[in-house]
């Protein structure tokens, strides 16, 4: 099956469950030293600017700076919320190609959609802070929103121009007071080098040790001063291209393994064809050697289809990007500035061959020319035909013949002759900003700006069978024409082994389909900031403020062709066009008050607070508008120079996005391993049988229902125009230690965070829906809405089938989230005499990450656990640690990445009533990986990346990087123990390195 564009977005977003940081209108001044910038910290903890910021302090002509998480412009302001900083050096040493690559390893973040996601990748890359979902954190560029890429309102990290990024700052906790809705779990703020002067050309190339997956990137940046330094302009262009890496190219992922019994799991859509819903028999295959109907997989060569070799660990990617920025001082007090960006991305998600999916209901004449005689005889008996009637029907070639007979069932057949399916995503994005800022007086400043951006994506699917064409081509009584009279129709042979479907047959059955997504964001903001002219009697610095108004207008739409709209391709379901949008008008204010300064035990005591009022107007005649108020209060106390305590409490919101509000109901796919109605259980349990029948299964199918193929079933989703904003309360408490004397150069930060979300927009998970019906069966269950809301295919009794709605996933404001933990950061710099030592550490301990979809749903804590109910891996402990030695223009740097051990979710360890031990000894798998595999546990993983950078001349440097230095193989979990978007290729490739050792070499030329 295939996860479509809109479907994946809605499922993943609803199920998923301080350094002085310089940003905003104050732009970073680029430095181009002749020596390599080893002293610029590659990764830095959320401490003070002197330790945490990468490179020299950022300044502008006015000398003002803005702390990430605040709109107040004050170079002396200290952050009350922790901010992690990733410098430009980290990108260069890793030789990262996209922003998603560096953010996925950030402690406290959870791997989301990126280059390692194949089935579920829609051309966009996301970041997911704290495991609360990519739609609950904001991605900013220089402190400003940019146009989202999709219907969910999420920014595509593929659009971020890495070559011009000075550093990346990640703010923990809510920030809705500063930036508006959606910043519940935090903010990722990319800071650009907008004062760049000179020319910088760089190129890099990567390849795995196995010789596959080459990845090339090149960038050119040119900048210069205007009118003797009154202004600056910079332009950067970039190109990158990557080739695919197939799962079949690695031993551990060569075939799909069942996580629960260790056998090859694969898909029930097979070659030879499986015939489902045969009266009194159930599911059968035709043995090509005998032509007889036999039990599935009971003859040589008959196995579940192995889709792994066709799927990807690295999706092909191509990007062209252009970024330009400039500013000019009209007077000493007034500056105009502008910024424009454009990106064109192409992502190709390749999946296994298509065919007749779901399964597909068909009607076939007994006189079909390709139907083997032994199978015909068996089918005649199943459908109640006598021997004489069967013989007569076999030669009745026209529906007008009174002996003409047909039989109806469902089929599941892989079109291996057709080759893999391609999903090509082409996305274009542009965003333009223009503003003016300046000084009204020495104590009062203004900033007025506006921007508009759009993103458009074309999704072309090819290699899919047209449902009506398959049904048309099977309704035939000779090998050249179809009974429909359609002259283009070529009769289809699905009754034999691989190779029986000819190119001519495939040409009639296949076509390409198109889906189009367009999004836009227009916004305007005016900010007045400065000091109020009042100073605390115990302080020397005045009270600062920022106040302003903001307007944002979101619009998005989805359109498609008629075939997609009508669900005309097998394996895909109808996707209805829709459009929607909303406007928001806001007023906000912030205040920072130094209370005590330069006193014993009170070197600095500072309070700050803020409030934002928002009015939302949803663009729908029947939808209500709503208002929200967010606020924050924080403090920073520095008793002595070496220690500072900080804390902030914030009330934040997330408004429902356009997809959640407006998406029509549609059928998609979800993960489910065990169907309670499958197998013989309903034949001995009257209540269970009654429920299965009430859900749409025919009485004849009871006892013959198969378990879900590839652990996937249908589910129905859709928007809800009556949704209201989520509400979140969060707080952080921390300490920053920067000792002097012998420990000078050391910085330590520790912060506890606690984020709670109420009225969360959510949907139940698969097990929530199943347990809601089957957990406590009684005679009344057959009429319970919790049971009758689940729908099955009438002939097969399965939760899949053409038009079968399956499990109901209804969006509501009934969910709740709670997560808390501790972030720890350390940095240390010391001149050792023979070399400069630069070390940094960022670690996270997640105590809890609790999600409850509805008040009746199971309360889940997915920290340290994996299952189909826990989308991506969220480790209990994770850290990154970099150590760099620099001497005479040469940097040698080692990065250590740690992921704590994981185990199967306790609520997911019973299958068919039998406890799952997890220890598997499948001989083939053991031979491939060289050890016994325990699918129920993942040990702690440690990766080492080694980088060498050398300045050959003052203008040229090269970097060599070896990622996964020890060539560590990923953990083996099987293919169906987890949520299939992330559990792929028998592992979790977004979290663990499935590619093996990789080499990258790059050069940078600077003038």
Helix/strand layout:
Layout: H1 5-15, E1 43-44, H2 49-52, E2 83-87, H3 88-94, H4 99-103, E3 109-110, E4 128-129, E5 137-141, E6 144-145, E7 165-172, H5 176-179, E8 186-192, E9 198-208, E10 215-226, E11 231-242, E12 245-246, E13 274-278, E14 282-286, E15 293-294, E16 312-314, E17 317-329, E18 334-353, E19 355-365, H6 373-382, H7 387-394, E20 406-414, E21 420-441, E22 444-465, H8 467-474, H9 503-509, E23 510-535, E24 542-560, H10 562-565, E25 578-599, E26 602-618, E27 626-640, E28 643-654, H11 658-662, E29 666-671, H12 681-684, H13 686-694, E30 712-717, E31 726-737, E32 746-762, H14 766-774, H15 785-788, E33 807-808, E34 812-831, E35 836-852, E36 860-861, E37 865-866, E38 877-887, E39 890-899, E40 902-904, E41 910-911, E42 914-915, E43 919-920, H16 923-929, E44 933-934, E45 937-938, E46 941-953, E47 956-963, E48 998-1006
Parallel strand pairs: 5-8, 30-33, 37-40
Antiparallel strand pairs: 1-2, 2-7, 3-4, 5-6, 7-8, 9-10, 9-48, 10-11, 11-17, 12-16, 13-14, 13-20, 14-15, 17-18, 18-21, 19-20, 21-22, 22-23, 23-24, 24-25, 25-26, 26-27, 27-28, 28-31, 29-30, 31-32, 32-34, 34-35, 35-36, 35-38, 38-39, 39-46, 40-45, 41-42, 43-44, 46-47, 47-48
């Amino acid at each position: 099956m295939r996860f479509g564009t809109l479907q994946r977005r809605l499922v993943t977003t609803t199920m998923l469950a301080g350094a002085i940081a310089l940003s905003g209108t104050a732009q970073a001044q680029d430095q181009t030293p002749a020596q390599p910038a080893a002293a610029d910290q590659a990764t830095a903890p959320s401490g003070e600017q002197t330790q945490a910021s990468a490179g020299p302090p950022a300044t502008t002509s006015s000398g003002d700076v803005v702390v990430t998480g605040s709109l107040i412009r004050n170079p002396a302001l200290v952050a009350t919320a922790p901010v992690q900083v990733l410098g430009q050096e980290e990108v260069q040493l890793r030789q990262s190609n996209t922003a998603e690559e560096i953010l996925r390893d950030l402690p406290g973040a959870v791997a989301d959609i990126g280059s390692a996601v194949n089935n579920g990748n829609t051309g966009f890359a996301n970041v997911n802070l704290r495991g609360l979902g990519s739609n609950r954190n904001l991605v900013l560029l220089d402190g400003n929103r940019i146009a989202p890429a999709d219907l969910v309102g999420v920014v595509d990290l593929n659009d971020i121009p890495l070559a011009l990024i000075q550093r990346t700052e990640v703010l923990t906790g809510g920030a809705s007071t500063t930036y508006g809705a959606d910043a519940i779990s935090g903010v990722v703020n990319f800071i650009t080098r907008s004062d760049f002067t000179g020319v910088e050309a760089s190129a890099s190339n990567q390849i795995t040790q196995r010789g596959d997956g080459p990845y090339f990137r090149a960038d050119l940046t040119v900048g210069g001063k205007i009118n003797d330094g009154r202004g600056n302009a910079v332009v950067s262009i970039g190109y990158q291209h990557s080739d695919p890496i197939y799962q079949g190219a690695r031993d551990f992922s060569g075939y799909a393994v069942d996580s629960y019994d260790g056998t090859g799991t694969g898909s029930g859509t097979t070659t030879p064809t499986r015939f489902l819903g045969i009266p009194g028999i159930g599911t059968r295959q035709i043995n090509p050697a005998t032509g007889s109907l036999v039990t599935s997989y009971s003859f040589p060569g008959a196995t579940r289809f192995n889709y792994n070799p066709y799927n990807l660990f690295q999706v092909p990617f191509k990007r062209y990007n252009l970024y330009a920025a400039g500013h000019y001082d009209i007077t000493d007090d007034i500056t105009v500035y502008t910024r424009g960006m454009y990106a064109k991305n192409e992502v190709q998600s390749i999946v296994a061959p298509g065919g007749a999916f779901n399964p597909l209901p068909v009607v076939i004449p007994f006189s079909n020319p390709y139907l083997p005689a032994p199978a015909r005889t068996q089918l005649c008996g199943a459908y109640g035909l006598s021997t004489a009637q069967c013989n007569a029907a076999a030669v009745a070639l026209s529906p007008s013949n009174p002996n003409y007979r047909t039989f109806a069932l469902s089929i599941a057949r892989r079109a291996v002759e057709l080759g893999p399916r391609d999903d090509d995503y082409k996305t274009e994005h542009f965003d333009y900003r223009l503003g003016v800022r300046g000084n009204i007086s020495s104590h009062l400043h203004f900033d007025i700006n506006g921007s508009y951006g759009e993103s458009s994506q074309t999704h072309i699917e090819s290699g899919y069978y047209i449902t009506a064409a398959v049904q048309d081509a099977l309704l035939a009584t000779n090998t050249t024409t179809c009974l429909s009279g359609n002259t283009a129709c070529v009769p289809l042979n699905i009754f034999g082994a691989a190779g029986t479907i000819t190119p001519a047959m495939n040409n009639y059955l296949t076509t390409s389909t198109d889906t189009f997504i367009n999004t836009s964001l227009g916004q305007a903001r005016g900010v007045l900031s400065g000091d109020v002219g009042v100073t605390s009697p115990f302080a020397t610095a005045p009270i600062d403020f920022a106040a302003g108004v903001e307007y944002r207008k979101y619009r998005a739409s989805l359109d498609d062709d008629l075939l997609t709209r009508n669900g005309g391709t097998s394996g895909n379901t109808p996707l209805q066009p829709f459009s929607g949008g909303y406007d928001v008008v806001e007023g906000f204010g912030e205040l920072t008050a130094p209370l005590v300064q330069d006193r014993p035990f009170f070197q600095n005591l500072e309070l700050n607070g803020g409030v934002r009022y928002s009015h939302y107007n949803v663009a729908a005649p029947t939808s209500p508008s709503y208002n929200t108020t967010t606020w924050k209060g924080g403090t920073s106390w520095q008793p002595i120079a070496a220690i500072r305590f900080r804390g902030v409490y914030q009330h934040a919101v997330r408004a429902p996005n356009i997809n959640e509000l407006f998406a029509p109901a549609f059928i998609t796919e979800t993960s489910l391993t065990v169907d309670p109605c499958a197998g013989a259980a309903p034949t001995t349990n009257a209540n269970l049988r009654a429920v299965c029948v009430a859900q749409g299964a025919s009485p004849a199918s009871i006892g013959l229902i198969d378990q879900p193929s590839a652990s996937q079933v249908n589910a129905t989703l859709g928007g809800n125009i009556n949704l209201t904003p989520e509400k979140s309360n969060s707080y952080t408490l921390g300490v920053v230690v920067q000792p002097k004397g012998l420990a000078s150069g050391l910085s330590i930060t520790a912060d506890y965070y606690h984020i709670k979300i109420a009225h969360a927009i959510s949907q139940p998970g698969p097990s929530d829906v199943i347990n809601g019906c089957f957990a406590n069966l009684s005679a009344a269950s057959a009429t319970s809405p919790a049971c009758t809301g689940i729908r099955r295919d009438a002939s097969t009794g399965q939760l899949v089938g053409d038009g079968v709605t399956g499990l109901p996933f209804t969006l509501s404001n009934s969910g709740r989230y709670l997560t808390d933990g501790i972030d720890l950061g350390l940095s240390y710099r010391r001149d050792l005499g023979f070399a400069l030592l630069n070390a940094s550490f960022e670690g996270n301990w997640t105590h809890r990450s609790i999600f409850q979809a509805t008040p009746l749903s199971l309360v889940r804590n997915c920290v340290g656990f994996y299952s189909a109910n826990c989308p991506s891996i969220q480790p209990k402990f994770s850290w990154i640690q970099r150590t760099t030695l620099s001497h005479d223009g040469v940097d040698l740097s080692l990065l250590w990445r740690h992921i704590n051990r994981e185990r199967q979710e306790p609520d997911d360890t019973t299958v068919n009533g039998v406890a799952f031990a997890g220890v598997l000894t499948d001989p083939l798998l053991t031979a491939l990986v060289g050890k016994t595999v325990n699918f129920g546990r993942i040990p702690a993983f440690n990766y080492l990346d080694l980088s060498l950078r050398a300045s050959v001349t003052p203008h040229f440097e090269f970097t060599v990087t070896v990622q996964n230095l020890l060539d560590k193989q990923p953990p083996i979990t099987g293919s169906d123990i987890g949520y299939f978007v992330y559990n792929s290729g028998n592992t979790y490739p977004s979290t663990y390195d499935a590619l093996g050792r990789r080499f990258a070499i790059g050069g940078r030329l600077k003038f």
